[in-house]
Every structure is written in C-alpha cells, then in structure tokens.
Protein 1
Amino acid sequence: MKMKEVCTRTGLTERAVRYYISKGLCTPDTAEKGERVYYEFTEEHLTQLREIALLRGCDFPVDTLLEMKAAPRHIPQLLRDHRQQILQQADQAQQRLAVLDSLCNAPPISLSDLARQLSREYEVRSLPDPTLTLRFGRLDEELPPEEIPPEQTQRYISRQLALYTHTRRNLLLGGILILLITLLGWFVYQRYSERIYTHLALGCDVTFSQKQQDETGYWAQMTLYPDGFSQPQETISVPVGFDSWPLFQAILTDYPYPGLSLTLSVPKREATKLGIYDPQTAVLDVDGILLSQYELDENWMREHLVVSVVQAELS
C-alpha cells in the first residue's frame, strides 16, 4: 500500500504520516529512489496510524505515545497524568471564560485597551501568561530541525558527498575533453594552415602593365627580362599582387625597374597537392611557378605571388 492510499484511508496528511514514522510510532518498509524515501504499508500499519490519530485527537502528546508503546505498564500512570493536565487546562479555560465575561460587560474601545485589560485580569487571577504557550503551525506536520532522525541526516550527508564527487569527476572529465579538443584543433590548424614562405630578390629588369584594382586586392601583369631588354623573347610574364596600397600606387606601368623583391606564401597542404612543393626535400619549385610549368590560374598567382619592394633607378 502506497502513501497516497494511506492518507486517503486515514485522513492524515503525508507530512503527518512521515512525522509519525520519523518518531518511530509506525515502521513500514522503506525503499530509497534518488533523494526520496518511499514507504510500503500494510493493513497493520494502517491500523497503527488510525490509533495514533485517535490518541492525538484526544490531546495525547507524541512523547507520551512513545512511552506507552515502549512500556505498556506505564499506561495507567500516564493516563492519570494526562487527566490531571486536562483538569488544569479546564480550570484555566474556566478562568479565561470569566475574564471574557468581565470584558464583555465593559467592552474596550481599542485593541490596546483590550490588551491592557486582559493583562490586568490575568495578573489578578494568577493565570499563566498566554504568550509563553503559543504554538504556531501543526506539530504533527512539521519536523523541527533538532528532531531530524540521525539516519536521515546521514542519508543527506551521503547524498551531498556523492554529488560533490560526481561534480568533481565531471569537471575533471570536462577539463580533459577541452584539452583534447584544443590539441586536436591545434593539430588540424597546423595540418591545414601551415604555410611556406619564400622571399625572392630578383636582380633582372622588370616592368608592370595592366595595373588593376578589384575586390580581391591590387595587382598587375609583371614582365621579367632575365637577360635585359635587348632579348624580349626570353621574357617571363606573370600576374602578381602588391602587399600595400602605396606601393601599388607608386608603380608606373611600362616603366623599367632594375629589380624587385617577391614573397611567395602558399599553404603547405595546397602546395603539396599542386605538386609545387616536395615534403621530402622541403623544396618549393619557384622557377617552375614563374615559368608557368604548372596549371596555376591568374587568381592563384596574384594571391600568392606578392611584390613587397621595387627598386628604382639611382639618379
């Protein structure tokens, strides 16, 4: 039998049933699932709870019920003590009725007047101060912190320690995972983004033509004359880019310059795929690129073959 059915058949709230169980007045079988404790009740437990509810309805304190359960031979004396306590309460109730009767004859005109007259009447009749016996809430449904069973405290501590261990393990695994992802990202970056840089200082005659600017940058058609301008049949003509706007602007078309510096920057993986780089010898075939021995389109050439310095004639 589950908790819900027990509450329905006894008229008790779940909190009251759990309180009686925590005090040891009822001992059903228990099972833990996650952080909650579940109970399995029998008809005998149902009878126990009904008896407890009946006795509590007659104002028997829980501590008295526990003593009756532990030592049945004390029941007669406990009954006499309880009777005497009820007689005292009845006497005090009669005196309070007399206080109210006297107040009804001369009603107070304000809440403060009522409080003062009540205080005076209580002093005259030697009644106990009612503020010393105030009880807020329903005892049977609220488990005070000082009355939490030790086993419940131990279960809570065990759950917190397990949660701490689980969280620490997850943080450690998360840190290791982040480290592995970082290393993998670094490897991929090195594998696919590593570039080959080659700087060329050419001391031959050179001219530029078809100087243009578009969304991809600044470029022109560069013509090299390895043996001077006297043998144009030996020329090499390739498109090149410029590393800066001022250099591009300063270049004059069809004007001979005595030399220049080129920077060839190519991703290693791309260069290997195109066949212009040998990973075994770490050699980039610059001559083959300039002589158009590979099928490299114009956009590729001007993106990777960049003019950084142009020499001018000394006056």
Note: The mean pLDDT is 83.
Protein 2
Amino acid sequence: MKKTWLLGFGFFSISITWSLYNAFVPLFLERFLTSTALIGFMMTIDNYFALFLQPWIGRRSDRTNTRFGRRMPYLLIGMPLAALFVALVPFHNSLLLLVLLMMAMNLSMSLFRSPTISLMPDITPEAQRTKANGIINFMGGIGAILAFGAGSMLYRADPSFPFIASAFVILFAMFILQRSIKERRDTLSYTISEKQELNFKGQLDRTTIFLLLAIFFWFVGYQGVEALFTLYGTNQLGMDDAEAGFSLTFFSLAFVIFAIPSGWMGAKFGKKKVILAGVVGLALVFLAINWVETIVMLRILLLIGGAFWACININSYPFIVSTGTDAAIGTRTGLYYLVSSLAAIASPPLLGLLIDFFGYSILFYCASAAMGLALVCLLMIKHNGESTPAHQSVGLSGK
C-alpha cells in the first residue's frame, strides 16, 4: 500500500494538470475565438490524442525492456516534456502559438498516462487492485480539488502561476516515482511480451468486448451529464450559473470520499457485483433527478450518484485488467482509455443534438438509458472479475 500511495503522486499530477487545463485554457481561447462550439472542439484535443496514441503507447510499453523497466522510460521522457509545455501554455501571444502549445502538451501527456496507470496492476496483487485503484483515484480527486481551489487563487494573482505550479508538481511526481518504484524489483511478474504474441485483435474475446461496451455506455452517460449539467441547471431548473456549477461539485466530492471504500468493497465482494450495484444505482439516481423540484434534493441525489459512480469507476479498470494476462496490462490499459475517450468525444454532441430536438428534460433520461445499456452488457459477461491462473503471464523473464 505504501508504494500505491507513492504511485498516487503520478495520478495526482495528471489530475491536477488536466483540471487546470480544462478550467483556464477555455479563457485563453476566448480571447481569440467567438464561437463556443469551436472552443469546445479545441478542448477535446486530448481525447483525440488518447484515442490514437494511448492504446499504442500502452501496448508499446508491454514490449519495452530497458534498465529502467517497461513503463518508467515513458514517464522519464513524457513528464519533463509535459512540465515544459504546461508551463509555456499561458505565455502564448497568438492563437497559432496557443494551439501549438496545447497540442505539444497533449502529446506529452499521452506519452506517460497509460504507462503510469499500468504501473498500478504491475506492482499490486490482483486481489488488492481495486483497493489500490481507489487510492490513486482518491489522490486524483484531491488533485482536482486543489486545482480548482488553490489554482483559482493563483490565477487571480497571475494567469501563468497555476500552470507553472502544475509543472513543478509533475516534476516532483516524476522524482517520487523514479526514486520509489524500481520495476525489476517491485513488479510482481516482470515479463516482456513478444511482438508476435500480442495484438489488439487477440485481446478482444467475448468478455472483453462486452466489458468495453459497458465502459463505453456508462462513460456516455457520465460524460454527457458532466458536460451539459450546468446548461441543464440553468435552462431546465432555473438555477443561476454559480448554483448549477456548485451543485455538480457534490457529485465529485462524493466520488472522492467513496473512492477508497469502493475499492475495499470490490476486493471483498467482487468487482463485477460492485459495478453492477453502481450501474443500477446511478441509473435510478439519473432517473429520479427528472422529478426533482428543489436544489437541496438535487444535491442529495448528486451526492448519492457520486458514491455509485465511485463503485463503477474504481472497479472498472481493475476488471478490464483482470480479464487478460499480466503481459497485456499496458495494452488493456490503452483499450480502456480508447473506449472512454470515444465516449468523451461522442457523448456531449450526441446528447446535445437530442436536447436540440426534445429539450433539456431529455438529458437525464438519456443518461439513465446509457446506464441501462451498460447493465445489459455487464449481464452478458460471465467472468466475475477475478483473475485465474490461466490469466497469469508466462512471457520472457526480465530478472
């Protein structure tokens, strides 16, 4: 658990950087662009990089073999580059330079995200992975809270300060990870996948396909609500901007509080059972929001929804890893981010189009329906989310 908390610094740095990026880069873009739709598109660049690069990087790290390990070389290259470009983003003087810096930052972040997350199952016994995922997501949630709190104060002092601070956080996280985690010593089964043995098609068995579909559908529901909730609150419920934005923090706060307990429940009762409970619970919460009449009741439901989302999100990554071999952890990490990125790209415009046709009242019906589709996919999976000896890697020994 000590190494898991130390690994959490990597996730902490990723979370704090993206939170600051999503909060303040739109304000930079607004100086040059008048179209909100175009600004929104520019802010999805990271998802396109995740769509194409992260699966490839994750798979590549499975086959990397250096004196630093399999994953660490990508951290040692990507994190300094990310720190550099994060720090430079606020020092743009034109739209072209801003876009170039955004793309360079996104590319750099994509180099080390999948390998960083892959380190968790590398160094954690299968039975403890949901607990470990709860810890690193808890660290990520704290990073997001700090980004919005301390980052806002730094931004008031000077728009460059939060980005410079984020760059130092990334470098500090890299120092912690490089000093505390030695892959050849700490990885449970240090194996290098042979090129001819590993391909994406070979990973797509029946269980994996239905699990990836489930992940896609529940992220469609979640991403759509996250992106459009403020508009829903102001247009459907008559809230002002601040009330709507503040209400969504109840969902995020509950997720952070329940991150570690959700991992514990996954280890005790099984990943699939806890995810099923989360999907059913969140579907009912989204459905109930359609009949909310007071802000207090809305925020209570969002608190409950955040707890159910923790049950889903904390256990889903360990579940997708458990259905493959240890030698394919990086590849399956890439597949996980592939489908979640597809959902992030597809969900807001799709649900926005439905809102254009049917009004804002359709939002939470659609989110609930997406959870229903995820439930159907989960029920098609016979795997219980626990690894069997057949799923352990043989590979090439690196020791």
Note: The beta strands are 191-192, 396-397.
Protein 3
Amino acid sequence: MATTYKAIEVSTPGVLKLVDRPMVEPGRGQVRIRVEASGVCHSDALTIEGTLPGMTYPRVPGHEIAGYIEALGAGVERWQVGQRVGVGWFGGECGYCEPCRRGYFVNCSNLIISGISTDGGYAEVVIAEARALASLPEYITAAEAAPLLCAGVTTFNALRNAKLRAGDLVAIQGIGGLGHLAVQFAHRMGFRTVAIARGREKEKLARELGAHEYIDSLEQDAAQTLLQMGGANAILATAASGKAMGPLIGGLAARGKLIVVGASPEPLEINIGQLITGTQSIQGEAVGTAIDEEDTLAFSALHSVHPLIELVPLENAPAAYARMMRNEARFRIVLTPGAAV
C-alpha cells in the first residue's frame, strides 16, 4: 500500500501547489475515498483566495468529489470497501444546533464543508464523513457525477422545491456552469423553459439542452419579453450578478418567484412596490444533503442530464482553476487524479 498521496494544497492564499502527503487512515465514522474525479467550482475561490473568514491552512480545495471507498473507519456499517460514492459541499452536520434539530441539515450552524473546513477533492484520496456520502449509480461516470454533486444538486433542488407545476413557465438566467444544467432539469421536469443570456452565441446550445425559448438580454428587455410570454412562474438566477438579477423581477407572473443560486457580492436592487402588488417572492437555495445528491444523480441518469465537462489532470489544477475564474470553462472542469473516470 502507498504511504503517500498527491494533493493540490493551498498554504498561502492564491497559491496552488502539488505536494506529497502522508497517507491517512479514516477515523471513527469516516471513510477514505480514492478520488477518480473532482470538479472545479467557483466556490473553491473561498479556500484558494482566502476570502472566507477563519480559513486555516494548509488546505486542499474541492467539493465535487467522486470515487470509491478505499478504507472504512470504526463504526461505519452501511458502506463497503470498493463502493462508488461521492461527496459534495455538504460534508456532514453537527446534529445538535437548532437548524439540525429542526431537520434543516444543510443549514447546520457547524456544517462540515468539503475543501473548506476539511481537506477536499483536489487530491488522490480524501477523508470524508460516512454520513455525507452519496451513492453513485452504476450508469453514471465519476467525471459526470462530480459536477452534479454541487452545481447539479443546487439547480435540481431549486427547481423541485419551488412548488411549480408541469407546464409552468420557468426562466433560467445564465447559461454557464449552473445554468446549462438548470435548463436540462427544467425541460425534463416538464416546464416551459426559457433561457436568458447575453448575446446570441449560446442560443443554439441552450435550445439543444432543452430551452423552448431564448432571450438575448443585450438586444431584448428580458423582463418585458417574459411578460409577453405570460410572465414567469419562476426565474432561476444562476449568473453571479446582482445587477442582472434585480430587473428580472419585472418579468414574474403574479405570485412568481426569483430563486437565487448564483452567488454575487453585488446587492440585489428590487422594485418593492412591484414585489408587493404581484405577491412575488425572492428566495435563495443552498446545495443539498447527501440524499439530495443521490436524488440528483438518479434523476440525471434516468432523464439523460449531462454536465458539459473538460477533463484535466490533477497536476494541472492551478491552470484549470485560473481558466475557470476567467469564465473560460465550457462548462465544468473536472480534475482526474489518474484513475478511471
């Protein structure tokens, strides 16, 4: 058995370095996963750039992890060595804070976050809490599963929890890492799906992914165009721009909702009178728990939802991360530590 493993480590904010680390054994209630694929997500910047208060280093980023169990810690009963599993942003709940006691595990006040509070998937192996594992279906590859464990579950949960009905008009703002999955989910859930993006270059792709209509926000007033279609029952905002999200509220139908999943540092400016008279709402949606991830994977496999991915060797993670931050990824970059994907 190997005594070391390779990992991409952040010791100083902004600097990613390939290192050899001593092999570690899982503790009680934990497993060691042999990583086959690890997605590169914009939220990795919290770790890599050191923008999250309280970050401690060194730290291995990555919260879209797919592979198989290599070793079990004491007390782990459900899982088996060799079983294919994944771990997303949700790395485990404390079980005793108020959100946990009310069953809101994803809102845990002491949430374990892969790649932030614990070492993540930019590595050949990772230690994970057994309670945070999602089982991977046989008919989905590790490389495709990885982005679904964050971008996938975020958009899937946002739509399925929105109390919509088949046939409702649902608009997806942004056709990027989140949006290209959201369009597929919306179409396959039976919604009249409208894609909103800047320019015409993504129209062909958006329609191929399942959009029934396309709005070029550079040439059209997106809100007015949605109203001409009857108004959106929901708008899923995936592009990280508060400035772009706010005006879209004008395109909501009565009792429609703006669902925000694209994290933006910009404030969201809204017309309060319009919000009140339309009985409209704004809500955020946070990733999901391990069972939500399993639901996302199962739905994706059943309805042929596929992330558009680029495979990159683990050692090229610094360049891959830089490309992602420059919005050059089309649409999710997945690191491969060398195992089959």
Note: The chain has a mean pLDDT of 95.
